[in-house]
Amino acid sequence: MAKDLIRYDLLVQDALKGVVRKILIEAAKNGLPGDHHFYISFSTEFPGVRLSHRLREKYPQEMTVVLQHQFWDLGVTEHAFEVGLSFSGIPERLLIPFDAITGFFDPSVQFGLKFEIRGEAPEESEAAAKPTQPPRGAGSEPAELQPKLPAAPVAGKSAVPRLPAKPKPVDSKPDKAAPPPAAEKPEKTGDADVPAAEVVSLDAFRKKN
Fold this sequence. Notes:
With 209 residues, the protein is an alpha+beta fold. Helices cover 50% and strands 21% of the residues. The strands form two sheets. A four-stranded antiparallel β-sheet has the order 2-1-6-7, covered by helices on one side. Strands 3-4-5 form a three-stranded antiparallel β-sheet, covered by helices on one side. The termini are far apart.
């Protein structure tokens, strides 16, 4: 499959973030129409996110804000939006870049969008670069295949040396030292009549000479 050099996924995400931006601009100008209200999730670790130290300690990675009844001073720029919200009766001012948003949901019409954070792409690539350490499910698959694959070659290798190891050295010994093994072979191996007769005739010929 060809590599996506255009990065359609990023283009689609940018377009959908433009939809969220337009919705918030309309809400800032005219308020929320009808029963519409928004749940916006975002990464608190993303560069440019501004929130109080109290909220950052409570939500070190991700948090969700609700724009429904108690929010004020909603302002939208090209790259971020700013809003005032109340948390446990304490007013807070948040600045959230659109690139930090991980989810947008309108429960009134069951409309939702999910986004991937570009800033986390390097971390995902690093995790993908080390698949042998973290992936347990993937590691179990090769673990099951490894014993099956070597089982055949190991059995084959062990069978090969056993067959030639015993007959080959026995056949080579009579060629180098004819007198001792030649007399033993015709007695033990009665299947080979022709070579046994030749060996005997050679021994008899040598004894006569």
